[in-house]
Amino acid sequence: MQTIKAIAIDDEPLAIDIIKEYSNKVDNIELVETFNSAIDALKYISNNNVDLIFLDIQMPDINGMDFLKILNKKPYVIFTTAYDKYAIEGYEFNTIDYLLKPFAFDRFYMAINKVCEIVHAKSMSQIQPNTEILSDFFFVKSEHKIVKIKNNSVLYIEGLKDYLKIVTDNNFVLTLMSFKSLMELIPENQFCRVHKSFAVAINQIETIEKSRIRIGDKYIPIGDSYKDKFFEKIKI
Fold first, then answer.
1. N or C: which end of the chain has fewer CB within 10 A?
2. CATH number of the domain at 137-233, please?
3. If you ran DSSP here, which 8-state letter would residue 86 be given?
4. Is it true that domain 4-126 has CATH number 3.40.50.2300?
5. What is the pLDDT of residues 126-175, one digit of tens each?
6. Crossing angle of helices 13-23/105-127, nearest 10°?
7. Is 44 exposed, middle or buried (0-12, 13-18, 19+ CB in 10 A)?
């Protein structure tokens, strides 16, 4: 597992000390710098590789939310704050987790594990760009958490205005992603876009009737602009 280079930004010295202490207990995290000013951190990030930021929200000069808005490079973010009122807004910034002060080491460790799983999945896709199946799972952000979804559990994906609904064999997950972004995460040989609002898991198809697909009790339309590619993929 590669080492994750992290920085901490917090105007409270005690909070910085706790993050240092906890980081020293985790082998694959290297806390390379700490800052009590988000402005100073901006200069550092522009000139150095940073994988992860532990970020307070309420700070002088510039708060954590505004800091992320002006940040050009986008590392992973774990918020560390005493204010839970920002939780929903915080997850709009590709945030991995939201640690509410004072937080214990076990909660800190859970947040780090989320980062490690995502970094590992991303590195595997880069190492094996030509394999048909990059991995048997993928991650999506749903509400205030990152959700791991196994490829073979997915039945179909439905577009619902601003959301995608990923329907599995026992549940569903809503995520604020584009179809294009999600289709890049999942194996091309296992899934196919069949309509502007639908993609299906090929191995879950039960019947194809005229211009629709049946998966369980769900009938999914096949759009005219997707028909040729779909039938070519299933060799009909």
1. C
2. 2.40.50.1020
3. G
4. yes
5. 444 444 444 688 888 887 788 889 999 999 999 987 789 999 999 999 98
6. 60
7. middle
